[in-house]
Amino acid sequence: MAVNSNHKENEEGLSDPGVRFQSYLHGGTSSLLSTLPTLIVFPIYKTVFRQQIHNTPVRLAVGQLYKEGPLKLYRGVAPPLLMRTLNGTLLFGLQDTLLYQLSPSSQNVIPMSALAGFGAGVVEAVVFTPFERVQNVLQNGQNDHHLPTLKSILVRLKTQGVALGYYRAFLPITARNSLGSALYFGLKGPMCAFVARQGLSPFTSSFISGTLTSMAISLTLYPLSVLVANMQTQVGGEMKGVLACWRMLWKSRQQSVALLYRGGLLVILRSCITWGITTAIYDRQVKHSG
């Protein structure tokens, strides 16, 4: 991460609250600019979602979406678009703020970056779990008839209570987001430095480092994403706990890791496009504002 690799050079400026604010601004801007790729790859994301929920091959998942038609293809796209912008603002800005609080003297930057990322991921889970809950309910085609609109979903979730409504699957989301953010901020800087030594431009190095880091994280934590998707699509009925849901999921996948990772290759493609671009834009903004 450029803001971390240049930590020592900007040590005095880091105490300026204006510099802290710039991290939030750069994070939000980079994520906002990546919303176009999010729109482009949303059908891919929805295909992965169907594979996660129904355990179907990609051909059948695409067939389901094709049969439903183009109008329903982008049902549920609003929450991830809003989340992308707000997520980048919070994640990059808060991580940078926590990093300065943890390591103002620029000592042990890499482990402190990971620790700050972990803290930012926890806050991210608290803020965005309701967004993800609504998004997953919207994307489940089985909810189309009895929950046809966003308003109907919001009203229904409100009646479920906080834990079973908007904050369903909060624990696995917190584990996924905190570990993912810790790995991202801990690995991205060293990865970018390694790629840059191959003679590539700074923008290309940032893009590749963000892509490779995100791919590794996505594949490592993919089972948690599958668990979250399966827990959050249901509204009403018997709500089982995390361990019970995991046992049901593992059994439904015939205790096969290959079936559990169904759709994982598409997650790699999505990570390449979204986080690669976001990382490159963010690092470029930091470099030019430094």
Automatic annotation (TrEMBL):
Location within or outside the cell: Mitochondrion inner membrane
UniProt GO cellular component terms: mitochondrial inner membrane
Membrane topology: Multi-pass membrane protein
Chief place of localization: mitochondrion
Coiled coil: none
Pfam families (UniProt xref): Mito_carr (PF00153)
GO molecular function, one term: NAD transmembrane transporter activity
SUPFAM superfamilies, per the entry: Mitochondrial carrier
Entry keywords, A to Z: Membrane, Mitochondrion, Mitochondrion inner membrane, Repeat, Transmembrane, Transmembrane helix, Transport
InterPro entries: MCP_dom_sf (IPR023395), MCP_transmembrane (IPR018108), Mito_NAD+_Carrier (IPR052465)
Solcar repeats, residue ranges: 22-101, 108-194, 201-288
Transmembrane domains' residue ranges: 24-45, 166-187, 207-229, 259-282
UniProt family annotation: Belongs to the mitochondrial carrier (TC 2.A.29) family.
Designated name of the protein: Uncharacterized protein
Organism of derivation: Monopterus albus
